[in-house]
Batch of 4 targets.
Target 1
Amino acid sequence: MPKTIIISNRLPIKVQRTEEGLAYETSEGGLATGLGSIYKQGHNVWIGWPGTYFEDEAEEKQVHDDLSKQSMLPVFLTESEIRDYYEGFSNETLWPTFHYFSQYAVYEDAYWQAYQTVNQKFCDAVMEAAEPGDTIWIHDYQLLLLPELLREELPKSSIGFFQHIPFPSFEVFRLLPWREQILRGMLGADLIGFHTYDDARHFLSSVSRIVGLNTAQGLIDNGYRHIMVDAFPMGIDYDKYAALADSPETKAKIEEYRAALPDQKIVLSIDRLDYSKGIPQRLQAYELFLKEHPEFLGKVTLSMLVVPSRDQVEKYRQLKETIDELVGRINSSFRTITWNPIQYFYRSFPIEELSALYCVADIALVTPMRDGMNLVCKEFIASKLDHKGVLILSEMAGASRELADAILINPNDLGQIVRSLHEALTMPEEEQMLRMEHMQDLVRRYNIHHWVEIFMNRLEYIKVKQMSMATE
Ligand code: GDG
């Protein structure tokens, strides 16, 4: 019986060492929810790194046995692989390049070597589980070489690849010394998906100019197969966020927050710590807003959550310092005994508290410099049961292609962000509700389950099309 194999760098699980031994916490992330309906069925399996380094083989064996009961197969990485493949090539070479921060990119041969080794390691793990006829779905930029490695082993199988981060224009992508190997790696897939048409278009243009293949109509002809490239904007588990907003736990938190911030307009900002998210620019715009609109002093609070991420990488440490300094400067310049302009949290929150924050926020300020999609803005929309609230959204987020009823801004234009904040804070309720309801219809319909279904159907379709083209 053919099965589906999902592969991502991280398994949807956190392993913790407790006094009673190893404990496993399953991820609540959107991808895990969407794919949960697939990988938990029959013999289907999810393959990935469990996120931690294990010192001895006995512990690895235990993790392997425990996870296999939950349809997961772990790929173990050594300390140097974590450093060079994950923190190195994935996060210091590919991440900055793909987010148009190529000045931050590190071109290090040792990183590239580790990236190839670990992609091969993933291939070996897949080969332990795979049989002819299986469908394989590979996720994201840490595994760009895997489609081709698997194609060599399983020439006839269905291989899908989805990239969760942007694909940059040819002029930026070409800067990578390993550009051709990377593209050839991706071209092992039958279907290559991105969040937006622009990402797909950039990818096709790189394939045409670097590899020299014909890419007409989003179909790449490599002489053996036709590979389809398309946009699949990812959605969220809408019902989950709507139900959370209605839960007694969230309602209790909402009361608590409202009592703590009486008569305040709340502007919400939530991101992982990352330079692609535009956090310093957002703070500068807020500072400018307070200077230009003194009538709002004492009446507006920026609730800013920054979730710790990649703190082993130097650029992220520097970014944290920049944010700390800006928050300190703004709070010390503007605060009064009874009011603080910014509530800044550098930690992650339980999902019920996140939900309560989405509910109480009057404005979500989402201003990434670049973002593949951005799910935070969709979660904010799903949480607004009273249909009130305004989304200010960067044009550089994939989500902006769908959410035309947000106030769209260029994150480099601080004056425009200031004007948008003012517009949002003074927007009549009827207009807020009209815009919000439009966005809710869209986010509800194009949810995570729809995304999974569309991708899987398209993969099936291209396999059938390949066969009919081969016999023509
Ligand atoms: C990559 C791409 C693309 C945040 N703080 C807390 C928390 N979160 C959750 C949010 C949301 C997720 O983290 C962040 O998702 P994003 O989409 O905004 O960003 P990335 O992590 O960069 O994801 C991105 C995505 O992949 C999917 O393809 O949209 O462009 O960069 O779900 O809710 N969750 C909890 N506590 C927190 O404090 N529980």
Note: Residues 448-471 form the longest helix (24 residues).
Target 2
Amino acid sequence: LLAGTTAVAVGAASPAQATPETSLRQIVPAPVKVTPRPGVSYSLTANARIQTQPGSPDARKVGEYAAELLRPATGYRLPVSSGVTPRGVTLLLVGADPKVGKEGYQLDVTPWGVVIRARAAAGLFAGVQTLRQLLPAKIEAKTKQSGPWTVPGGSVLDYPRFGHRGAMLDVARHFFSVDEVKRYVDQIAAYKVNYLHLHLADDQGWRIEIKSWPRLATYGGSIEVGGGKGGYYTQEQYKSLVTYAGSRGITVIPEIDMPGHTNAALASYAELNCDGVAPPLYDGTEVGFSSLCIDKPITYRFVDDVLRELAALTPGPFLHIGGDEAHSTTEPDFKTFMDKVLPLVKKHGKLALGWHEFVKTNPATSAVAQYWGTDTEDADVAAAAARGNKVLLSPASKAYLDMKYDENTELGLDWAGYTDVQDAYDWNPGAYLKGVPESAVRGVEAPLWTETLDESSDVEQMAFPRLPAIAELGWSPQSTHDWTDFSKRLAAQGPRWQAAGVNYYASPQVPWG
Ligand code: TNX
């Protein structure tokens, strides 16, 4: 026994079994396999420690993260040390079933503690998210609460269906500060989302400092929809965001939308316009009126510079080049543009992601198409999938978190229809688009466009409870897909959001307690 732990001698009677407030079956997203042990539970106590895999700094970091999650509400010290004793909370990188892969984990709750086993830190992180949901809801409170902190006994075996489970935040239409984005990162990480796509530039604003073209941010970032003051991230701030997301198991995908959705850039540099005249800044919500100048060489020097600086800020594999709604660019020009820009992404060592329209230009098969249509059929996307391109699914009528829930929703838009939680949940990404089989699907992403959203509470109202629905479609096996069961598990999240101060929409479709 380690000095300082509760001395429970081997062979001694088990600690008293408290009745847990939660069930092993209420986890969102649903795990692959759950095996409850009725009558068994573990209670986290004041002298508990968090032990992590000896010799692994990555496991240690997850342990520190777990401690930060659990300290405020419990008020316990929860020291983190390396060790393997199955007491308290133990995070191990040995002994996991190979099936769990890089992101999966096994979690075992005995009377003496919780052991999480994984093959990589990402799996330990996912296991910690599960543990969090097994503790009473008030664990999410930021101030000290009274226990007991009881976890139901049993085991979980879990790993994701798709390797890409994403959320997008549009920081261009309305600017969101680094702290606001970090807040969203924390919220989505709880549902095992592993990519955050940031829509960094659009007609209404340019939000990332580009040192070789400084007016993009200082002028192009100076407003937002409705005429507010906008803002931008310095490269230092952006790096801190990327690092923070990384500490939550999340890879950031930066998007610069091109060749349309570029008024902020065109307004910042007159020479980027075909007629050499800079348009005014724009604070409305129309789309499709702007285009980079396809025939000017400076356009490609500009894109090259932007992608180079962005690639240098991006540890992840993808740069998103937009490509949607280029209604002011002719089809041949659109192809000319993509044929020149996609190799620049490669030149800077990254893979291209784009809104699905760009697959018309026959990009290299390493490029990923993000489907945002409202139909279950798209010939160009099916043809791209047949050629070998992977597809990231964000069907607007299912996955767009900016769609109104119903006719009474004040925030949001409705062009893709109303989307209540059940609509968001009731589809199968592996069999959604005709000609795009599960093997061609990279995963799912829930985009949140912000024409009507201005602060974190707006973001939360639209994302919760639908973001967890999309996250579950990306993580959980299709065999667990069941609306009634999901709606009950979702109901158990309500008190957690309340305790955490997350502003969710209490949809009448969910049986909140
Ligand atoms: C369409 S979806 C857009 C965005 C809007 C969004 C609003 C897509 C790739 N483009 O420019 O913000 O609808 O829902």
Note: The first strand starts at residue 33 and ends at 44.
Target 3
Amino acid sequence: MPPSRMPRPRRYLVCEPRYFDVKYAINPWMSENTEVDLDLARSQWTTLTDTYRALGHTVESVEPHAELPDMVFAANSALVLDGLVFGSRFHAPERRPEEEEYAAWFKVAGFDVHRPGAVVEGEGDLVPVGGYVLAGTGFRTTVEAHREVQEFFGVPVIGLQLVDPYFYHLDTALFVLEDGHDGRAANIAYYPEAFSPGSLAVLRRLFPDALVATREDAMAFGLNSVSDGRNVLVAPQAHALVEQLAEHGYEPVPVDMSEFHKAGGGIKCCTQEIRA
Ligand code: ARG
């Protein structure tokens, strides 16, 4: 029998996909002139946020901006740990104006926002788990930003080299199952081939009991999942991973975000956690 898993209530920041679109191509999932079914996107997103609330989580939202079609991907806006907000500096000029929109939301919500000097895309590449921050680099977030994150939070940053352009953000290749917050064993799930050999060895060393996903799971955005320690909101297309989660005592909660896959995003990309 798998051990029973305990959920912990979370605080999430999201951005309604009122103006979601694929207007430019800044990752291999995107192509210009892609048709987006906005009604479908809105209903998928509403299911996601309704699901969070039904599970007892707090969901807050930032006002979307008509000129910012990727603003729905709230996870790129910051890393928030112990009430400290490390803001973002986007790689693509198209997304730069989002920095100000999100910083303004955090300020109104009562947080000071650290504005970084180097390119860094929030929880897209910065994943806190087990007393570390796992930090992706290779496509977006820079190693210089990793140093800045470590200085800012005083938490050890573990750099991980991403090597496959389809998995351009760390949160497309890895997610946290259990963050280890209250002394429980931290654990993750990941797709090995997204990482350089050395980075993969680091993951194996730190998380010997991790769930290892297939390329099919990863291409279905299965690693772009959100766990509260028990319930795992996961793409239903990631069949093998959904099964593995159940075998390990987690509660898979399928949420289909297929319309957002056209922009290279899924469940986690739409979800910024506020750890206050
Ligand atoms: N189109 C967006 C980009 O390329 C998608 C961002 C997905 N977000 C994430 N956390 N992986 O920047």
Note: The mean pLDDT is 97.
Target 4
Amino acid sequence: MLSEHKDRGRWNTKLGFVLAAAGSAVGLGNIWGFPTQVADNGGASFILIYIICCLAVGLPVMIAEFAIGRHTRRNPVGAFKKLGNGWFPPLIGIWGVICGVMILTFYMVIAGWTFSYIFEELFYFTGLTALSEWFGDLQNGVKNAIFTILFMTGTVAIINGGVSNGIERATKTMMPILILVLIIMIGYVMTLEGSSEGLKMYLLPDFSLVDTGLVFSALGQAFFSLSLGMGALLTYGSYLKRNQNIVESATYVTVADMSIAFLAGLLIIPAMFVAQSAGITIMGEDGRLFSSATLVFDVLPDMFKAMGGMFGLIFGMAFFILLSMAALTSTISLLEVPVSYIIDEHKIARKKASLIVGSIVVTVSLVISFNIDLIDVFATIFNNVGLPLGGLMLSIFLAYFWKTENAVAELRHGYSDVDNGKFPLIWGVFIKYICPVLIALVLITTLYNLIF
Ligand code: PFF
């Protein structure tokens, strides 16, 4: 057996692992992506379909990633190599590492925007309008480059601390703050004029809008939001101790991720209607709510400005601090995938590995930050195609190469009564049939729509 590099770490506590994995899952995908998708897809019916996708496809795949990671104690490439022969197994891992690096390149730029907006708000409310405009300009390549580098530096610093002292400690501190800030902001927005209209749109379903396209968007969103398909959670699983109940932990992570997405919607959709009451335009000429960057970087800041005074300042800054923290707990998991690959497979120390990958990623990010149209192209390829493709290969590999019996044997550690309640049977049906078929359908539809 290959020796383990000393820089391969272990989680200190069970809760620490759950929070770190939840931190990976909870990110821009929840606080920005989910409300945007709800707004795009007509409200509450999307939420229901999304929950079903998370539980029926996301959760079984997450259990699979944790099981493979813990069983092999390796990065994605090493893990699949250890479990199977031939070209196919390592390819799944290599694809994961590539997706990790590529997603990180544009995720960093967007994370940099959220960070620079903390200053945009601060300077606006302190009367320094020119400075505020500079920090708020998404097209300013120089400013984007500075903030992308700053965000990457923070991410590398945490990764350099190692698994328990770096990642676990940082996420354990940030996740409770994030939840608290979110809840306080929701409470306040609910007291403002217009919020009840937003609440209605968010919570009352309109099933006439449900079609296969909506189901596939929900599944794609679930995959991205749960950090599945590129081995990030496999890598986190590889630092697990044998006595942790993987099925239980995966359930906590999935529920935490869904709940925070739901809470983010509860903040952002009503906030849009509060903005409308303050005279801010929230819909395009087609009658649809603004989504995407317009929503986060135009509509909401305008709302904070309309609030004015101390509340505007506090809420404006708190919102972008919230987004930055959510992004940071995700960027560390994205970076950990290539870093763990280099540590395990090339026996290079953690600090050197993170510096190498960090520099490569930042170089590509800088190109994108000067030409932000590329973000859309990268996001489409790696989020919408890359992750489902990775997830499809992973579930096929587990079900038909490694075999579910072996995975269940791994799950028995920390969950001794895994066989009671028919868990192996049910999970087996999901991972062998339901997940691959649904993921393949999403992938085919996405590719078809992209090509034609
Ligand atoms: N789950 C993160 C989000 O919702 O923003 C994004 C992400 C992180 C995707 C890590 C994939 C990943 F491996």
Note: The longest helix spans residues 373-411.
